[in-house]
Amino acid sequence: xxxxxxxxxxxxxxxxxxxxxxxxxxxxxxxxxxxxxxxxxxxxxxxxxxxxxxxxxxxxxxxxxxxxxxxxxxxxxxxxxxxxxxxxxxxxxxxxxxxxxxxxxxxxxxxxxxxxxxxxxxxxxxxxxxxxxxxxxxxxxxxxxxxxxxxxxxxxxxxxxxxxxxxxxxxxxxxxxxxxxxxxxxxxxxxxxxxxxxxxxxxxxxxxxxxxxxxxxxxxxxxxxxxxxxxxxxxxxxxxxxxxxxxxxxxxxxxxxxxxxxxxxxxxxxxxxxxxxxxxxxxxxxxxxxxxxxxxxxxxxxxxxxxxxxxxxxxxxxxxxxxxxxxxxxxxxxxxxxxxxxxxxxxxxxxxxxxxxxxxxxxxxxxxxxxxxxxxxxxxxxxxx
Length: 385
What we know:
The protein is mainly alpha-helical. It has helices spanning 28-37, 46-50, 60-66, 78-84, 90-110, 120-141, 148-163, 171-198, 203-225, 238-257, 271-279, 289-300, 321-344, 349-367, 379-384; strands spanning 16-17, 23-24, 113-114, 373-374. The protein has a two-stranded antiparallel ribbon with strand order 1-2. It has a two-stranded antiparallel ribbon with strand order 3-4.
């Protein structure tokens, strides 16, 4: 019977002898490579088999070519490696994990609900922008873009002037005032629709509306920057400035109003705010609410001596909180108007002032990331309530 073919993967039990009969020890490394290649020889092509030696063991070149393989070169993982690309390093996994955690934290932050009690800073910034934008626009056109009460009174006067034959007519002013009212209404209407769709108190919606307001003011600034600084308002360009500015103020008004803030109202109407300040029973109280709140926290601190016998729980808001917030809103409004007047007398002028106001709207978007918020309740919990 013909003798069986030698097994190329078998590990020799006797020492390997050379051509002249000398004994050669089989290196341990070669043994390990032979064991590792035993499961992959069937997948190796005929060329590799032809390189085997006649005495039953493989040549060093064959062993190097047919040894254990890793990555895309391995027959067992070649397809998977070729499809999935280069081998992933541990540092890359850590980097992607950190980016994923940051994304989850930012998503959670943007989905939080904001209360007006925690939003005093962005609401005060809104009031400052109202004074700034209205002062800038009114200085050139005699048209309000935030204070629509004044626009409605003046527009009614314009209508009466067209009804009186002997009265002087102001066609441009009449058009600009009606455009201001309609654009303000459009901004408020679209802001209300978006608030109902995405959530009025949702942080992401407040940031989005601030960005839209900024874009509108940048558009108005772009129109002004395309004209000479000393050019008088005309039908050719100023109605566009009025439309974009009033739309921005209407969107600001509804976004603040939906926070249901009794202190800041809509950040564009302050007549009622003055009435509330005058009727506040703590109008002449000498203590400011931040200091009073700090005193209450110190009093209710379990580690303080004054907390003995005091009831546990969150302290109530100081009685002067509403008064102080309303005063802050009035101060911010007047500060914005003063800043606008300084810009009008500076090299910036109306055009530069409007661009600065548009940039301040971007600051408003960032300020909405500051207030402490609450995570939304799960749908099941809301439905069962």
